[in-house]
Design goal:
about 1000 residues, mainly beta, nine-stranded mixed sheet, five-stranded parallel sheet, 71 strands, about 15% helix
Length: about 1000
């Protein structure tokens, strides 16, 4: 709650869950001043007490509004879009309002500056301070304003924020505090004598009083709410506070209450109040879905390539190479597989005469290579390369004499355990060519390392311009590069950029047309066409986010795009999206659909697990001694031992004394399964399954390759939990300006990727943008989830507006009853990722890592690469210590919401694979949850959150057979969750210590690529 004191000190004004209220200074019943679906906040009285300025999104975007206290009339002072306002404050003369305003359309970073607004005209002007300033405050001098400023390089400070004074006439800034830790949210007494600010100390936050005359200071009150570590400080770093008119008392809010603090003696008394709160809640964007029976329909074609005559399409899907005819029946005719079994295959390339198709392969134990096969299928594939190196981005030269590929050495990929860190393709990246008949490769030139995270920041495919000697490619650092076959005359010729996640970024791909007259660019999931000038050797930088780019450019795609390409004659542009290929030869794009189905992995047989305690998750049901019968991939029967008939052909396993419960569902999982050329063994999948996690949902994958991994798991080609994903998050770079823009994005995920869910990452968007996106999601039956990450206003409005889920916690302070009840009533599933991922810091992950010895755990050593173990332990050892109360308050939030009838799900954030699910469960219980409730949040509620509660998440007849068997009872001690004996996924039973399959056939997991490394050196006994 932000509050202010009226000039006559008879009344307070404060905000509460998006409405403004007035309150007698001594407390009582609060009167609501504003209401409706708008979020109104940060009120401040005018010097004469007749008006209140506040921030509101009632126009659909953040703006400054003025409320007439007597009449209740409200008028906008600003009429902006795409910016945010923080902490408005009246000048002492009442003629102007100072407010912090974001200076660009982004919620990332703290790009906020102080502006002055004339009350009568609304005319604005910057204050002349280039620094980020928050919480402007006046004393009795209208020419001096105080604020929290991000620390300047020349200021002596260990903190990020310090209090400074600003001279309005000149913009001169002078540092006031020199605290070791952050000093924020200044409040100045009416006579200008005293300054109160919040200061962090010993892991807690306290208010400090500074005498501006004598410079003496003392602690005023201890343990107030923590400053927010918001991605965008849209409600400042602490709520607003105010002095009484006589300066004898400070009124402020913390711990869910309003307090009066005596300035002279630091006495604290509560201002009692009650308020009737009414919040409008939109329909929830939450939907149920079903798992496809018996088949898997591929959701993505990767690296599609049109044949030279345009009549056929080659592509990679499900880790294999396929060919499909490009005719009127292409959407109904099944593609033909041309790659050999045994390795995954990617990056098909047509020979110029269309007779052969080359492609690259990879196997985690054997390495990779380049292969060639007759396109008509008259002969088996033949290997062209000599070494088992890593290859990708394959292309034929126009004369058909050479194959060009990007290469990294075989051993380098084996040593790279986490491919989302950096480029993930080994340290040596280079372009090579080899004769099309096969042989040794010749090095052409190097490829620069990626300088920022993500699959889309990779290098581009080699391509050619008629008459040129050599080829072109997009380099992550140099932009579009031309190079000769011998590596000479390498030069950068073109950069196409656009606004990215937090800065301007290079296009994901740049492809010159065969005649060199145009360029296709893939930018922010859209294909653009850029016209290039004739006979100009120096090309300007093309910024596609600019109103007028330096060269003529237009967007071709609508819903989205991947894998742009030119037709062989250069007359048509093409790109794919999901399993659709678009070709555009004139003004309109033509859509070609690919329908590829393969058998779903469904085991055959009946197995009975006899005598175990079963925690079914049907309410509080516990069957102390039960039989569970599984037929194929579904639960056939469950009941008290002896009450159900076990089929004669069933394979029976006696699990007397053990406990059966559903597999865990990690709805906020992040991993690093590589893009482009996929791995055949993925350690992140295996370790989660070994620790009882049978379903994961990635709410922001590194690339859309996640869809292919999910489909390959479903088909049985890769072992792992059921894998779901939202696909890449929707960011500000998606440039939603209308409701139709939002609908196009929803179609991208619902109709093309078929993700069934969508991640709203647009923390920088106006509220209207989020509403458009939510409306579109409801129309296309997409379950939405939103990034909270301690942006409190963003999180609250997502609850109001019907987001199906919320990732991370909304605040770094406790949930009080108003927020607890709101969260519960909204129906939104909150996934708090308690191990880490919270702004303001969380110490749980490091505490757990420091409590155990990962090096001595044989199961950990079997399933985690050595580098992952080392990175976790080093990080834990070097982590900054924090006070325990912070952690405890945060972990208590989920328990409070669940107890009120709300919905909580388990999310590990990828902090530590496998073990993290157990540590998160234990943290739920440490925060006050009952063990049974924590297990329900980790199983059934998680399944329901991602729309599959009718498919798995409980032990019930007809549901998928995803369960785990424990040696000990987790209801007696939640730490018994680690007593895993077996895990069953999709009806297949595995031993959890080894992931050797026990049913329906006995099969060893076999050697995994990271297990070929030497054991970690012993440093202690």
């Amino acid at each position: 709650m932000s509050l202010d004191v009226a000039p006559d000190s008879r009344t307070l004004v404060f905000d509460l869950l998006g409405d403004l209220y007035s309150l007698p200074i001594d407390g009582g019943k609060a009167k609501r001043l504003t209401h409706g679906s708008a979020f109104d906040a940060q009120p401040r009285y005018s010097p004469n007490g007749r008006s209140i300025v506040f921030v509101s999104d009632r126009s659909g975007a953040d703006n400054l509004w003025i409320l007439d206290v007597d009449t209740g009339e409200q008028r906008p002072l600003t009429q902006d879009t795409g910016v945010f306002y923080v902490s408005p404050e009246w000048t002492p003369d009442g003629e102007s309002i100072l407010a912090t305003r974001s200076t660009r359309d982004t919620g990332h970073g703290r790009d906020y500056q102080l502006y002055s607004y004339a009350v009568r005209s609304g005319v604005s002007q910057p204050m002349g301070v280039s620094d980020t300033v928050l919480g402007a405050a006046f004393g009795n001098d209208s020419q001096q304003v105080f604020g929290a400023i991000e620390v300047k390089p020349q200021w002596p400070s260990f903190a990020t924020w310090q209090i400074a004074s600003i001279e309005r006439a000149t913009g001169r800034v002078e540092q006031v505090t020199r605290e070791l830790n952050n000093a924020v949210r200044p409040v100045v007494s009416p006579d200008g004598r005293y300054l109160v600010y919040a200061n962090s100390w010993a892991g807690a936050t306290h208010l400090k009083l500074l005498d501006l005359v004598t410079r003496e200071q003392r602690w005023l009150v201890s343990n107030v709410d923590r400053p927010s570590g918001e991605v965008a400080p849209r409600r400042d770093l602490l709520p607003g506070a105010a002095f009484s008119a006589d300066g004898n008392a400070l009124f402020t809010a913390y711990r869910g209450q309003i307090w009066r603090i005596g300035v002279a003696d630091g006495s604290v008394s509560r201002v009692p109040f009650s308020a009737d709160v009414e919040v409008e809640l939109a329909p929830l964007a939450q939907f149920d879905h079903a798992i496809e029976e018996r088949t898997v329909t591929a959701r993505r074609i990767e690296q599609p390539q049109l044949s030279p005559d345009g009549r056929q399409l080659a592509f990679s899907a499900l880790g294999r190479i396929w060919i499909q005819a490009m005719d009127s029946r292409s959407g109904t005719r099944a593609p033909r597989q041309v790659s050999a079994e045994g390795s995954t295959a990617f990056f098909p390339a047509w020979s110029p005469d269309g007779r052969h198709l080359a492609y690259v392969t990879w196997n985690d134990l054997d390495g990779g290579g380049i292969w060639r096969v007759p396109a008509n299928g008259t002969a088996p594939p033949e290997r062209l390369t000599v070494d088992n190196d890593f290859y990708e981005k394959l292309s034929y030269s126009p004369d058909g004499q050479r194959l060009v590929a990007a290469r990294a050495r075989w051993a380098e990929r084996f040593g790279f355990f986490n491919e989302t860190q950096g480029i993930g393709r080994g340290d040596t990246r280079e372009w090579v060519w080899l004769p099309t008949a096969g042989g040794s490769a010749s090095v052409v030139t190097h490829i620069n390392a990626v300088t920022y995270w993500g699959a889309n920041s990779h290098y581009g495919r080699a391509h050619f311009v008629a008459g040129d000697e050599g080829f072109y490619f997009k380099d992550p650092k140099d932009g579009l590069v031309a190079v000769r076959w011998d590596g000479a005359q390498r030069r950068s010729i073109l950069r196409i950029e656009a606004a990215g996640f937090s800065k301007r970024e290079l296009a994901d791909e740049i492809l010159l047309s065969p005649d060199g007259a145009q360029a296709l660019a893939l930018v922010n999931n859209q294909t653009w066409l850029v016209d290039l000038p004739k006979d100009q050797t120096t090309l300007p930088l093309v910024d596609l986010s600019a109103t007028t780019p330096a060269l003529p450019a237009r967007r071709l795609s609508k819903e989205g795009a991947e894998f742009p390409q030119w037709s062989n004659d250069g007359r048509c542009a093409a790109w794919s999206l999901g399993t659709a290929l678009f070709t555009q030869c004139d003004k309109n794009a033509r859509r070609h659909d690919v329908m590829l189905r393969v058998p779903r992995d469904v085991p055959k047989g009946v197995i009975a697990l006899r005598g175990a305690r079963v925690i079914t998750m049907r309410g509080d049901e516990i069957i102390e001694r039960a039989d569970v019968i599984v037929s194929d991939d579904k639960i056939l029967a469950v009941g008290a031992a002896g009450s159900i008939k076990i089929p004669a052909d069933a394979h029976v396993i006696d699990v007397t004394g053990k406990t059966i419960l559903p597999g865990y569902v990690d709805v906020h999982w992040h991993g690093a399964p590589p893009w482009g050329v996929h791995r055949t063994q993925v350690w992140e999948f295996l370790v989660n399954l070994a620790y009882g996690v049978t379903a994961v949902r990635d709410p922001q994958p590194a690339s859309m390759d996640a869809l292919t991994y999910a489909d390959r798991i479903a088909s049985g080609a890769v072992l792992g939990p059921r894998f779901f994903t939202t696909g890449r998050g929707v960011f500000g770079t998606d440039d939603i300006r209308t409701s139709e823009d939002a609908r196009a994005i929803a179609r991208r995920y619902a109709q093309f990727y078929r993700t069934e869910s969508l991640k709203d990452y647009v923390t920088n968007g106006d509220r209207q943008v989020h509403r458009w996106l939510l409306d579109a999601a409801r129309e296309y039956r997409l379950t939405t989830t939103a990034e909270a990450n301690s942006d409190f206003k963003y999180s609250l409005t997502r609850l109001f507006d019907g987001s199906g889920g919320q990732e991370h916690l909304a605040t770094v302070t406790p949930y009080y009853q108003d927020l607890v009840r709101l969260a519960a009533a909204s129906g939104t599933t909150i996934t708090p990722t308690l191990l880490e991922g919270q702004s303001g810091g969380q110490d749980r992950l490091n505490a757990f890592v420091n409590q155990v010895d990962l090096y001595s755990d044989e199961k950990v050593l079997r399933f985690l690469p050595a580098e992952e173990i080392e990175s976790l332990t080093v990080g834990a050892r070097t982590a900054r210590r924090r006070a325990s109360f912070t952690s405890q308050e945060l972990v208590a939030q989920p328990a409070a919401v669940l107890a009120a009838g709300g919905r909580i799900a388990l999310g590990v954030h990828g902090s530590i694979q496998g073990l993290g699910a157990h540590w998160t469960l234990w943290t739920f219980v440490d925060g006050g949850m009952k063990a049974h409730d924590a297990l329900r949040a980790a199983t059934l509620m998680g399944a329901q959150a991602i729309g599959y509660g009718k498919e798995f998440g409980s032990i019930e007849v007809g549901k998928r057979a995803d369960l785990q068997v424990l040696d000990a009872n987790p209801l007696e001690d939640i730490r018994h969750t680690l007593s895993l004996r077996y895990v069953m996924i999709n009806g297949r039973l595995y031993e959890t210590d080894t992931l050797n399959q026990l049913w329906p056939r006995q099969k060893s997991l076999g050697l995994q690529w990271w297990q070929r490394q030497s054991r970690i050196p012993k440093t202690h006994e």
